[in-house]
Amino acid sequence: VLGESRFKTSPVPGTTNEIVGELFKTGGRVIKFYDSAGIFRRYRREELRVYNMSLFKDALREVDTVCFIIDASKQLTQKELRIAAMIKHKPCLLLFNKSDITPLSKRRMFMNHTRDTFAFLPAPEFFMLSAAKRKGINKAVREIFLLKDRAAINFQGLDRRVKKIVEESRLHLFILSAKQVSFSPPAILIKYRSKRKELTSADKRYLERMLRENYEIKGVPVKIKWRKLG
What we know:
Blueprint: E1 21-26, E2 29-34, H1 46-62, E3 66-71, H2 78-87, E4 92-97, H3 104-117, E5 126-128, H4 137-151, H5 158-167, E6 174-182, E7 187-193, H6 201-214, E8 223-228
Parallel strand pairs: 3-4, 4-5, 7-8
Antiparallel strand pairs: 1-2, 6-7
């Protein structure tokens, strides 16, 4: 994206122990990129692994959006699963690098497999790119800005829509109110009555899926707080 090598790396593979921020300006807007490459690799010294993990968590708390870059020419590993689990509460998009050396059939299979594997992520957009040939990068940059804007969503007509979703479903509950209580990323408080002791996980997943169909929030995590009354 920056057009040149700007991030600090160690000459010894897998020993990067600094996360550096760089500003990038485009179309009158500014992005600050943080590179965390290498921090999840194996280390001979345990204290270096712990230190790098601490750096990553600090950076994760600060950023608005996460670009999860995955090598499309290789199989997914536990490392990718660990990273995905850590970023699931952040607005994110998935970037599959090395598309130039990955056959089309393998790319499609890889993307389908990744969608299933990372089903717990907030329905992020997927992009194929080649950093070496600078293909697909502009689309990814545009999506970063769109994702940031989506994360600041104001759920218009939320109370009415949630009540309608529940009325048209098989969910055994009565919605008293649905209100947005925070932004970027958004959080919703739903007050309800139900004959059941607790809502099931399937019920909660269903409502979140229907919200995603009613609002443009791809890649945006939505925290739904449930409060049972009566």
